[in-house]
Amino acid sequence: MMSDRKVIHLANRLSLGLKQGQIDDIKKTGISGYINSQLNPVAIPIPEQLQRQLQPLNTLPWQPGKLVFEQNRIVNEAKKLDLDRRSLQKVRRQFQQRVINQVRLGRLIRALHSPRELEEVMVDFWFNHFNVFGMQGLARIWIGSYEEQAIRPHVFGKFRTLLGAIAHHPAMLFYLDNWQNTAPGSPGATGRFKGLNENYARELLELHTLGVDSGYTQKDVMELARILTGWGLPKPGDRAGDEDGFYFDETRHDFDDKILLGKTIKGRGIEEVEEALDLLANHPSTAQNIAYKLAQAFVADEPPESVVVDLSDRFLETGGEIREVLKTLFNSTDFWDERNYNAKFKNPYRYITSIMRAIGEVSNFNPINGILNQLGMPLHACPSPDGYKNTQQAWLNPDTMVRRSSLAVPLAGGLLHEGNPVDANQLGETLGITLSPKTRQVLEESPENLRGAILLGSPEFMRY
To answer: Which of 170, 184, 268, 451 has an alpha carbon 20 to 30 Å from 26's alpha carbon atom?
Structure first.
C-alpha cells in the first residue's frame, strides 16, 4: 500500500522538492518503479523544453583547454583596442562571470525541469563532497567544466571513477594547490615550484576518502603529497592546447618509494597516483565515510549505525558502485522509518529549489543566487573544502527563519515569474497534505493574497 505520506517522503528525498502532479506520477509508477528509474537516469528522456533552455548555455560542454583558449582569445581581441590594464581585467572577469552564470543557471534549470530528479540531488551531494571554491583565479573558468565533466557523468557509477575524474580535473588541482606540489631538489624545482604542498593530499584523505579520525597519520599525508608531486596543470602557454587541462610533470616528481597506509608504493611516476587512488577508493574507512554521508543526506542528520553499516558493506561488496549503495539505502527500513519523515531541515539551496518546483514555472532566475547569498549558500562559492553542511544544526537559527519568512512574500508575489503572483490554490494542492492543522487554520483565516507567502514560509515547508 502506498500512503501519501510514504510517497511524499520518497519524493522529498529523491528530488529537490515536491512538484504539482509528482505524487500522482509516483503512484502510477509505483515506489519501486520510481526508485529504479531514478537510479538509471539515462533511460529517462530529456524533455525538449529543457533542451531548449540549456542550449544557449554554450560554455557548459567546453573542456578546460577550450575555456582557457576562449578567455585568451577574448582578451587578445581586447588588447587590439589598446585598452588599459584595468579594462582588460574587466574583459577577463566578464568572460569568467559568463561561465559562472551559465553553470549556475544550468544547475537551477535542471533542478526545476529535469525528470532525472535524483541525478540533480546527487550532483549537489557530490559537488559538496568534492567542493571547489569557484570564485578565485583559474577556478572561475573551470568550475563549469568541473561540475559538467568531473561530477555529473559519474554520480551513479564507481566511486573510484568519480574520484579519478576529480583528481585529474584542473579546478581541483588549482583550488587545493597541487599544481605547485614539487619534490624538493627535483630538476623542475624552480620559481614557485620549490617544495611539497600538502593541501590536496590532506583533503584527499580527510574529506574525499578515508574521513577524519580514520587512523591515517601526518606521515601518510606527507607520503601522499610526495606521490602527488608533479601532478597538476600544463604550463601557462600550453593550457589552451591541452583539452582536459591535466598534466603530469615528471621533472617535479619524487621518484623514491613511498609507504602509504602501510603499503609500499614503488616510485615510478604517474602510475603511483593511480595506485594510491585505488588504495583509497577501496579502503574500508572510505566505505564507512561515504556510507555515513549518504545516510546523513537521505535518512537523518544522525543516521542509525545499522544503515551506515549496511551501506558500507554494500560499498565494499560492489567495489564502490554508487548506484548499488543507493539501492540498498532506499530499500532500508531506516530510510522508511516514520520518525525520519519530514525530519530534515532544508538548507538554503533545497529551500529555494523546493520553492521553484512548488511554483512550477520560473521565468526569472536572476535573483536566485542573490537570495542564496543572503541565506549564506551561494552556488559554487563555498570557500572551505568540506563544502556546505546539510544538517539542521548548520542552518536552523532565528536569523534564518526571519530571512526566509521575509523572502516568502516577494517569492509568492511573483519575483521569479514576471511579477505574476503564485497560485495559492495550486500551491496548496501540491503541499497541502504536508501541512499541520495549525498551518491549515492560519491559511483559512488569512486573506487570499497572503496564502502563498504563508505556505512558502510555513514550518512544514522548511523540512523534507
So the answer is: 451
Enumerate the H helices of 261-304 as residue ranges: 271-281, 284-298
Separation in Å, CA 423 to CA 129, 330, 380? 37, 33, 31
- What are the cell numbers at 57? 548555455
For 121, residues 6+ apart whose C-beta sits below 8 A from its C-beta are 13, 14, 15, 16
How many whole angstroms separate alpha carbon 329 and alpha carbon 14?
Answer: 11
- The residue among 334, 273, 324 whose CA lies nearest residue 303 is 334
Please write the tens of the pLDDT for every residue from 160-209: 999 999 999 999 999 999 999 999 999 999 999 989 999 999 999 999 99
Using DSSP's 3-state secondary structure scheme, residue 231 falls into strand
At 240, the pLDDT band (50, 70, 90 cuts) reads: confident
C-alpha cell at 83: 585598452
- C-alpha cell of residue 322: 554508487
Question: Going by C-beta distance under 8 Å and a sequence separation of 6 or more, which residues neighbour residue 208?
Answer: 129, 130, 163, 166, 280
SS3 state of residue 99: helix
Count CB atoms within 10 A of the CB of residue 441.
11
Buried b (16+ CB within 10 A) or exposed e, 296-311: bbbbbbebbeebbebb
The model's pTM is: 0.97
Residue of 402, 405, 298 lying closest to 355 (CA atoms): 405
Q: Which three cell numbers stand for residue 54?
A: 540549456
> String of b and e for 166-180 (b: at least 16 CB within 10 Å)?
bbbbbbbbbbbebbb
366-398 confidence digits (pLDDT tens)? 999 999 999 999 999 999 999 999 999 999 999
Cβ-based neighbour number of residue 263 at 10 Å: 11
